[in-house]
Amino acid sequence: MRTFRAALTVSLLAGAYVVAAFVLVGQQLAPRQPRTRTTGDPGGLVLTEQEQPGLWAEVRQLAATAGTRAPDEIRLVPEVNAAVSEETSLLGLRTGTRRMFLGVPLLQGLSRNQLHAVLAHELGHHSTTHTRLGALVHRSRLAIAEVAAGLSNPLVKRPFRTYARIFFSLTRPLAYAHEIDADRLSARVAGARTAAVTLRTLPALDAAWRIYLEQYVEAGTHYGLRPTRFFDNFTHLMSEPERLEELGRISAAPPEVAASAYDSHPPLAERIARLEAMASAEEADGADGADKSGNAASILRYPSQNFLALEDKTFAGSGLTPAPMAEIVTVAGARAAAVNAETLLNAMRENQIAPATVRGALDLIATGDLDRLLDMVEIESTTAEAAGERAFEEKRKVIARLLGAAIAHELVGEDKARYELSWAGPWRLVDIAGQEVDPENLAYEALGSPGYAAALRAWVHQLDAKADTETQTKAAAEPSAPPDGYIGALAPISGDGFRTLLVTDTGLMLVKPSGSDRLATGFASVTAGSPGRTLIQRALERPPAELAATANAAYVPWDQIRALHLKQSSSGRRSADITTASGAGWSLRWTDAAESEGHIWPAVDHYLGRRFTVD
């Protein structure tokens, strides 16, 4: 049966080439359609072997295990995806550049072993270990799908797509078997338990990424803003306890997504069940399924630097102004409240409800005259009593949402409240004392109780716009987040002995040399080594948060830097003057002989914006 199916597949492929030839002839004979030829960038940030030797070594090892050649390129991309694609011709018979795409959200949300499982599966699509025909069918299915999607001429589109549907239908069992082989390879590389957990985790990561883009990033694009620390924000969202609970539920019962006609994957539940059965067999044999590999981002050298470079490339040419996420949600929350408030007040004017104000609406509720507000909401007419109750509830929710937003808009406009960032939210409204308030819920309760409405009205009237003495004199701010990753380094910097300037994801750090550092740099000078390179290597050996806490380190967060002025002279001497919010400052000096690591000044420019100037 397997031999027959293989022969049938080869015949279908041969038929596909005949149909493809017909398509080419049809395109030549058919009336010309204007088209543009593009040689587009495949997207993402190229990670060269010189920059990422560790990553390339692991990928080459995975490719060798899969029995296929390693990719020609590895690209970092801003999406929940990992893939290995190939530029092919002749419907997959001739192969070209092979590219591997690594999604940053995967690196942030998976362990290193889980990433190995994903990459092994993707490389397994191109493996010829089990059968050469499987890899050929995989490439051909992708190529045929791409051709079918790109056809627009009706003379050639219909026959080719008809043949494509037949081809995909008859080759699906072979494609399914090829996917199962790829899953087995991922289990062999990372362990069946890890492979199964990975399949459960991917839908949760995808859901979290969609939440981040739709609720947070898109909130800023409406107002010409895009978040700085784009990828770091995603880790904050995934660390929020409420989000973790939500993502845990998705992982426990991953949703089955409707598959495309061109999809070759078996149902997700079936794949997970097969891997978990393999895991049970491994555990019975005494295999340890614990995953102690650490975060997948550790596969990169200086991941923060790479994420920052990809962020800049992703938004290049967008015209969006970079701003902290906290600033974006403040703007977006206030604007959303203003729009809803205007909707309510306009509706009150159209229905001749005076005064058309928040207090006017509260007065109506307090006097029990709810119908005038509720009648502004149009609900499909029903006759059943139960349906009428549902209609009342729907109207109550709509008015509560609009009235709550109108109250919030008034409070924000009078500086009695403000919107602030919430990774469970996307934003929350807090009063002048920092306590969260929920006008929508208060309005909903008031619509059900005139007595409660009177209390709500009194609360709105009495809320003072000025902070009390305790709030005014409260000076203690929340401590700045410690640095988590290095982006760049420069040494030696002149001062009291050699110094090292470190650029981290959360600020700048200036490190004085310890006694052992001085010995190491002295030894480097004697042996014709580089003192600057030695200082950098010794600093980067320690985690940034640990180093920032030492007595030899001075650390200042980005938001505490008032200005940084970089001077470059023709004599080979350079300097940077840094002024902090407290009025203190650093004056740094170095020469062209100083060693550098990473993209220091582009990173500084990214985080400081207008506060960074250059002579």
UniProtKB/TrEMBL annotation:
- Superkingdom, taxonomy of origin: Bacteria
Ranges for domain Peptidase M48: 51-278
Main localization of the protein?
membrane
Q: Which UniProt keywords apply?
A: Cell membrane, Hydrolase, Membrane, Metal-binding, Metalloprotease, Protease, Transmembrane, Transmembrane helix, Zinc
Give the cofactors, semicolon-separated. Answer: Zn(2+)
Entry membrane topology = Multi-pass membrane protein
Q: Does the keyword Ribonucleoprotein apply?
A: no
Subcellular localization = Cell membrane
A molecular function (GO) term: metalloendopeptidase activity
- Biological process annotations from GO: proteolysis
Any one GO cellular component localisation term in the record: plasma membrane
What protein name does the entry list?
Answer: Peptidase M48 domain-containing protein
